[in-house]
Amino acid sequence: AANPPIPPPAIIMGLLSFMLLSFVFLLSIIEFNHSKRILKMVDDNISVDYSQMPAKITFPKNYNVASSFIDRHVEKGRGERIAILGEFGSINYNTLQENVNKYGNALLDLGLSRGDRILMMVKDCPDFFYLFWGAIKAGLVPVPINTLLRSPDYQFMMEDSACSLVIYSQEFCKEVRFALEATEGKTILSY
Question: Which of 17, 26, 41, 90 is deepest in the core (most CB within 10 A)?
Answer without folding.
Answer: 41
